[in-house]
């Protein structure tokens, strides 16, 4: 099996074109990743293609919470809350390095969205529906205790708080770890490969024509079943399949802002009311606080949603409303990101009211489309899709039942989350011998989990006097991303493999030329490619900081 490396990408694509698969998954976001893992572990020969980088769509642009969606209880989405809520613990158990429990504070103010009694009952129902473990069940706090947890919260009208557990994640890394596990189990996957058309025999879909986005070459991939897991783009593929009728998608945009802790020293994650009676999150992470999200209808190209001045001002206003002593100005916004939600359209509803539940549509040609849903429910969504495909198989005993409930994702192989802490301790000595500081090691082991041994292996090839002056901590990550995570462009590294463009933008400015140089040597770019990739990174850096002046809805 070829390594999942950047330099093997073209060979993997060519090999895919020469074979026939049981399943072809279109889309390398969390939905496609989960489906590929489920399919391959049941014994299906599986391929996955992604037109950008893995997770470059919505799956790197979420609030980064693995959560049951407490607010959907208000909309009586009991079944969804129960199902997705239970998945939180499974997602955590299978990849504790990338998902962590986080206590969330829900302040209760006079006239706010939730009253004291409704919060208490709501959180109790949430605990029950989501089967929350004992130590993580909700607590109700007095107003004093609420302020103690987070002194920045508005004290005027404060009646108390709800305190409950959600799970924080890195959405892009969760996606890449699921894909890596799928690849280890036998999936063939390539990024920057776009489905430009579908292939049919007797009006039944039997594969796709794909275009390598890096060199324009065109290939055909044949499969028994084709799954459209393209998130915000599902309707464009349904259009190609001539099956775009009935229910359709409606996209809404969500923006998050990142502010340094020195300007917004939040110590506790908070889920709070906005002046227009929506709810948003403020979450401390890696020395920053991030806040979001907005929710507005979006009619532009989903490929590059951006923050506008209105989005920025809306969130700043919400911060001032709930944290009146925090004096944030637009210059304090260090970074931002915007994503579009692929929601299933419901007539006459406001963006925030549209259901987040997922649906599966099978067209006349047999194209299976999965639409809607949440990051959190990816494993269950995948199970449902592959159950359906198994049932459609002529020989129903050919494939195993779903295997993913107790299957660690890449980096999560510790024999259970309870062993993660002892795993970290056991490797501390090795890290020190290799010259990593305690902080560096902690960061690396939380990012790469049980793959830390591979990082240590790379560290042994480190030369302090290297051409680009890369410190060991950065060297191991760029080499790992190239050799094990198929990065193609600098933005893949800075956004989706390290999250640095959001949470450490100064670091990106500091190291971007060295990383571009290193990748250029490793991947032997032409001068033109190098210039394009540099320009792309600059544009994305600019968009993260400055609002888009031209957005039209
Ligand atoms: P995507 O991640 O968009 O993946 C689809 C992929 O298909 C894309 O990468 C795209 O490039 C690719 N593609 C499209 N067309 C083609 C083609 N022709 N050929 C090949 N590839 C193609 N959920 C949670 O659980 N928790 C949260 O905290 C949360 N917060 C959110 C906040 C915001 C602002 C938003 C927008 C969403 C949030 N969600 C959250 C929802 C969650 O992020 C999405 O449900 C999920 O990421 C969707 O994943 P996906 O794989 O379906 O879509």
Bound molecules: flavin-adenine dinucleotide
Largest sheet: 10 strands, mixed
How much of the polypeptide forms β-strand, as a percent range? Answer: 15-25%
Question: How many H/I helices?
Answer: 18
DSSP strand tally: 18
**Helix amount:** 25-40%
Question: How much is the average pLDDT?
Answer: 93
Give the structural class: alpha+beta
Q: From the structure provided, what is the oligomeric state, counting identical versus distinct chains? A: single chain
Distance between the termini: 46 Å
List keywords for this structure.
553 residues, alpha+beta, 10-stranded mixed beta sheet, 8-stranded mixed beta sheet, 18 helices, 18 strands, binds flavin-adenine dinucleotide
Please give the structural blueprint.
Elements (H helix, E strand, L loop, with lengths): L8 H10 L1 E7 L3 H12 L4 E4 L15 E2 L11 H17 L4 E11 L6 H14 L9 E3 L1 H7 L8 E12 L1 H14 L3 E3 L2 E9 L2 E9 L5 E11 L5 H7 L8 E12 L8 E5 L5 E7 L2 E5 L3 E2 L11 H14 L10 E12 L13 E5 L5 E5 L5 H15 L27 H7 L1 H6 L4 H11 L3 H8 L12 H13 L5 H8 L2 H4 L1 H19 L3 H19 L8
Helix pairs in contact: 2-6, 2-9, 13-14
Task: Give a brief outline of the structure.
The chain is an alpha+beta fold and 553 residues long.
Can you describe this structure?
Helix 2 packs parallel to helix 6. The mean pLDDT is 93. 37% of the residues lie in helices and 22% in strands. The protein has 18 helices and 18 strands. Strand 8 and strand 9 (204-212) form a beta hairpin. By secondary structure, the protein is an alpha+beta fold. The longest helix is centred in the C-terminal third of the chain and has 19 residues, at 505-523. The protein is globular. The structure holds flavin-adenine dinucleotide. Flavin-adenine dinucleotide is lined by residues 26-32, 49-52, 56-59, 61-65, 67, 194-195, 229-233, 237, 254, 293, 339-341, 373-376.
